[in-house]
Amino acid sequence: MPKFIIERDVPGVHQLENRDRKATALQSVRALKEIGTDIQWVHSYISENKTHCVYLADNEELIRLHAKKSGFPANKITEVKWILEPVDAE
Question: Tens digit of pLDDT for each residue in 45-85?
């Protein structure tokens, strides 16, 4: 399944309390369950006013559908072509 990085502009996301973080994750998971098994959330990186989320999905349209259903913007969607790691230098 292709891997995608989704950049989301979410003002104040870095200041969420633990219960609000949990609620946000639950909102995303509910949208994923509604869509089906052709999309999976791997994890997200939180920075000031942004999230960078890693997803596996059959196509970019599923990423956009998840954004619509979850209510979280998908400001930029980038498909990962390959992963480079330190072990590749050996």
Answer: 999 999 999 999 999 999 999 999 999 999 999 999 999 99
Q: Does residue 42 belong to any structural domain of this protein?
A: yes
Distance CA 62, CA 60 (A): 5
**Tokens encoding 19:** 């219960």
The answer to whether the predicted template modeling score (pTM) of the entire model surpasses 0.85 is yes
Residue 35: pLDDT band (50, 70, 90) is very high
Would you report the helix, strand and coil content of the chain in percent, each value rounded to 5?
A: 40, 30, 30
User: How many domains does the chain contain in total?
Assistant: 1
CATH number of the domain encompassing residue 55: 3.30.70.3090
